[in-house]
Amino acid sequence: MKNExxxxxxxxxxxxxxxxxxxxxxxxxxxxxxxxxxxxxKALNDLKPGGKFSWRMESRDGSMGFDFEGIYEEILExxxxxxxxxxxxxxxxxxxxxxxxxxxSETFEAEEINSPEVxxxxxxxxxxNFKKYVESLNKLKSIEFSIEINAPTDMVYDKMLGLSNIxxxxxxxxxxxxxxxxxxxxxxxxxxxxxxxxxxxxxxGMVSRIIENIxxxxxxxxxxxxxxxxxxxxxxxxxxxxxxxxxxxxxxYKNGSTFVTINTETSDDYLDYFNNTWPKALLKLKDICEx
Length: 291
Prior knowledge:
The protein has helices spanning 15-23, 25-31, 116-137, 153-161, 166-173, 268-290, and strands at residues 4-11, 38-45, 52-59, 65-76, 80-85, 90-98, 101-109, 141-149, 181-184, 191-197, 203-214, 218-228, 231-233, 246-254, 257-266. The protein is an alpha+beta fold.
């Protein structure tokens, strides 16, 4: 490499977790930005030698954007990633385990438009944002709930999501909020807003992304922010403790019944709430499916 710039960060998480969060598209979109006024709405990542990656970088107001793209040259799992950018500059990323922590070192060739100082600052900011994202997930705990419903899986799936009639979704989720509803679609990669009115009569709720949807089998939702009236908030103390948390729905048909399993991640602040509310909500879902 010529005109090398080196940066590094120490992440308080084991190397296998760091590797997965660094390389999987559903996580890249949550940390791949240098400042709060920029975001990464889409990431494609074919992690293999000769594979291509493409990460969309945009300002949150939509006024600017570009695709950060390249081709992988070398992949050593849990050890090293080497790729070449579209302008032929090379980048090498090395992962080193240090007990329960991981040190990430990045070396990249400088471009000629911006000063080396500006480039180093921007790349370091993204790496720092990755550290923040990973360590915030360390605070999350996974909890699971299941129920047997005496109904066909396609019916349970439809009523749970409110596909034919949104009121079936609103009925079982009223345990979480009496005014519960949603806006958006359940399609893979879609944004969806889970909405209700707070104690002051203001629209509030969660902003999430559908990571996967295999009809009648599996849905994976990742929570990325909160809704405050019509404003989407993805950073700050109200979001950071649980940002990136997954909520997964599993559907299994067995012996004439559908078994629904919910696996969700949450912070300590909401453990008691979910342990109390999810079983009640699933009983409501069972009631409308078996009626």
